[in-house]
Amino acid sequence: TTILVLSGPNLGRLGTREPEVYGHATLADLEASLASSAEAVGVDIDFRQTDDEGELIRWLHAAVDARTPVVLNPAAFTHYSYGLRDAAALVTSAGLPLIEVHLSNPHSRETFRHTSVISGVATGVIAGFGADSYRLAVEQVVRIVG
Ligand code: DQA
Q1: Looking at the domain that runs over 2-145, which CATH code has it been given?
Q2: Is residue 25 within 6 Å of ligand 1 at its C-beta?
Q3: Is the distance from the beta carbon of residue 102 to the nearest atom of ligand 1 less than 6 Å?
Q4: Residues 88, 98 contacting (CB under 8 angstroms)
Q5: Known catalytic residue: 134?
Q6: What's the pTM value of the predicted model, to 2 decimals?
Q7: What is the chain's mean pLDDT, rounded?
Q8: Catalytic residues per the record (predicted)?
Q9: Distance of alpha carbon 76 from the chain centroid
């Protein structure tokens, strides 16, 4: 099984972006640690980041066509992108898991982060555990798809 792990805008800046919120690890560090956890549970990870909403949407369309489960950190798009929500709904309506993840706990932060337009169409949500949010999501996808 391959799991598509997508990260949205500004997550390519991890390491130097608000380290008091997101820590000092870079996205490349996160990818490396996720790859080793994935190997331990016997899955491959297709790890990608983009700052572009359309690109994320097209990746979700391709996941539907290829029947690939998805772990998605929608970053700021979480809070307002109905286009991304509709694309996420295509994934879960197709019977594929889509787990929404966040490094931080958005509910303990600014009010605008308390709303997720993605959660209502996600299979589940994991937030607040840093890079472990991604690892837990991958492990859960493995439980779901076997
Ligand atoms: C985030 C939380 C979002 O509110 C924020 O816009 C991000 C990252 C997280 O992983 O904690 O860019 O999705």
Answers
A1: 3.40.50.9100
A2: no
A3: yes
A4: yes
A5: no
A6: 0.97
A7: 97
A8: 22 (proton acceptor), 102 (proton donor)
A9: 12
Distances, alpha carbon 47 to alpha carbons 2, 109, 120, in Å? 10, 27, 24
Per-residue tokens: 140: 């859960």
**What average pLDDT score do residues 90-101 get?**
98
% of the chain with per-residue pLDDT over 70? 100
23 — pLDDT class (breaks 50, 70, 90): confident
On whether the CB atoms of residues 45 and 138 are closer than 8 A, the answer is yes
Q: CA nearest 87: which of 105, 100, 103?
A: 100
As a whole number, mean pLDDT of residues 87-104 equals 98
Instruction: Tell me, in angstroms, the distance from the centre of ligand 1 to residue 128's CA.
Output: 10
> Please, which residues have CB within 8 angstroms of residue 19's CB and are 6 or more apart in sequence?
none
